[in-house]
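note to self — DONT lose this again. spent like an hour looking for the file last time. sequence + predicted structure for the chain T wanted, 283 res
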Amino acid sequence: MAEILKGAPAANALTLNLIKRVENLKLNNITPKLEILRLGSKAEDLSYESGIIKRCGKVGIEVKQIILNEDCTREELLNEIKNANQDKNIHGVILFRPLKDKELEQAAINLLSPDKDVDGMTDGSMAGVFSGRDIGFAPCTAQACLELLNFYNIDLAGKNIAVLGRSLVIGRPVSILLQNQNATVTMCHSKTKNLAEICRRADVIIAAIGKANFVDKNFVNNNQVIIDVGINVDDEGKLCGDVNFDEAASLVKAITPVPGGVGAVTTSILASHVVKAAERYLN
């Protein structure tokens, strides 16, 4: 049976580190502050918001909630972004996405300062990830994958890693973060030929393809580590990942659960980005 790479221990270790850093900031009269910008009241947004507020509270980060109507005007949303950019007491901003209006969503993202983009959604943050420069922040879920691997002392140098999915939220940025730790990465997607064979040869699989139980026993090997980023609902209405956990866990070396794996680390990464933004402001 595989080792289960639970997210809670990694999240708690990161939280303890952040508490010390926040204490240091407060000694310098700076209290890290996050602005949550939410349109409407989607259940998934409310759940994520609750987790963020709880994690920030443990660390000592203040949270400001801005709640707009789901059908708010372009001017209303962009004014909130402008105000956050100009407010020296706001160190980080997260805009819950996706929005119904894709053009408005992109306009809001383009307007947000990369210095306050703690969720890694602006072009500036993407440039920072892909160039290796200290600009903006990596997307939280992508960095959470690395945080888990590092917490469990999984050496990535020289390892072959298959990344399933090429989104800007996870697939593409996580591939760069892995390469920064000297891994050799194969990006896989819906057009990849011999996908199962590529995955079987990999030392690590990062599954972020958005298909419930897609990765089964035919994709894995006995010495493999699997990081399952997927959040899906199966035919029985149960929450599951992109990996068939029961099949894979009986074969591989280590695997993250869903829920309780990568997702448990994501809010801690967001909190760490807010603290780092405040430290940048201090320096």
